[in-house]
Amino acid sequence: MGCSPNVNIDLHIHSTASDGTLTPAEIIARAHRLGLAAIAITDHDTVAGVTQAMAAGIPSGLHYLSGVEISTAAPRRYPCRGSLHLLGYGFNPNDEPLRQALTRLQNARKDRNPRIIAKLNRLGIPLSLNQLEEGAGDAQIGRPHIANWLVAHGVVQSFDEAFARYLGVGQPAYADKYRIGCAAAIALIRNAGGIPVLAHPALIALQGSWPLETLIHELQSCGLMGIEAYYPGHTPEQTRTYLEWAARYDLAATGGTDFHGAIKTEIEMGRGGGDFQVPYRCYAQLAALIEKVAGPPDEHGRHHPGYRV
Ligand code: AMP
Ligand code: ZN
Ligand code: FE
Ligand code: FE
Questions:
Q1: Does ligand 1 come within 6 angstroms of the Cβ of 44?
Q2: What is the H or E stretch that residue 184 is in?
Q3: pLDDT of 167-226, one tens digit each?
Q4: Fewer CB in 10 Å around end: N or C, the chain?
């Protein structure tokens, strides 16, 4: 199979298992049609989409890594607004401790939705939990689903306005939720045979006085192995900085679009807003790391259910 350095990859994709609008099987089909060389489905706090995609079948021309995006709490010295998003790659999606931790996070999400709805109700917005769950299937319902409802019912004009006026941190319908500590999340991914990667560093809203570079050091001392350098929301300068840090501190540089389907229509899988690209070597480097962690693959090219070379 082709390993041309010029093909695109996308290691940050959301499916209907969290707040994306394409099913895992639709994501695989689209990635294949777009000619992507490697993808990972990285749903918020669930691996249901990862296993659904594998059950549907991955075409032989497509490299596929298990993935997840965990909402974690930053270390104490690094207060930040909202969650620190931690990506995991190439882990065993059947790993029991990881699954149990994800179940706790899913329950925290379920516990938060009624609190957000109660706040909206007090603001005179008549959303009910039933309405939210209608048509959501097994998805991890989150604020994006609520934002969509607010748009569909004319409460706000846009998805972003829903966050700016109601759902974002500090807004009147914001509700906090339990988060796993980042060190614990890093250890869970490592123990499941995977590679922990800090998601979209530029989106981290640090509130303290320590700079981002020292946070990355601290996370590396907890076992972090990579940073997401390529991301549509990063400026070229930010991307350059993260690539420099990755090289300097021996971290893998990864990248992806954060594709959500119709929730973020301006972002296409593998190409972001148009000319965004993640180089193939990011996948190659990650795959080499996974092999180092997991040992050589079996005769089918498999390490465990989450990874195929
Ligand atoms: P949740 O996991 O339910 O807390 O929702 C997190 C998701 O909401 C993120 O992955 C984004 O897609 C979206 N989101 C969070 N904050 C904002 C914001 N300020 N503007 C637009 N979308 C946001
Ligand atoms: Zn999302
Ligand atoms: Fe994220
Ligand atoms: Fe994401």
A1: yes
A2: helix 182-191
A3: 999 999 999 999 999 999 999 999 999 999 999 999 999 998 899 999 999 999 999 999
A4: N
Distance CA 274, CA 265 (A): 12
Surrounding ion ligand 2 within 5 Å at CB are: 14, 19
**Strand locations in the chain, DSSP E?**
9-13, 38-41, 63-65, 67-73, 80-81, 84-89, 180-181, 195-198, 205-206, 226-230, 252-255, 302-304, 307-308
Q: What is the pTM of this model?
A: 0.92
- The answer to whether the CB of 198 falls within 8 A of the CB of 228 is yes
239: helix, strand or coil: helix
Specify the amino acid at residue 218. E
For ligand 1, what atom is nearest to the CA of residue 264?
12
Pocket test for ligand 1, best of 19, 111, 228 (most atoms within 8 A of CB): 19
Cα(56) to centroid of ligand 1, in Å?
28
Among the listed residues 119, 152, 112, the one whose alpha carbon sits nearest the alpha carbon of residue 134? 152
Tokens of 7: 């093909």
| Ligand 1 pocket mutation, candidates 14, 81, 163, criterion most atoms within 8 A of CB | 163
Contact 132, 113 (CB under 8 A): yes
Name the nearest CA neighbour of 258 among 101, 102, 44, 75: 44
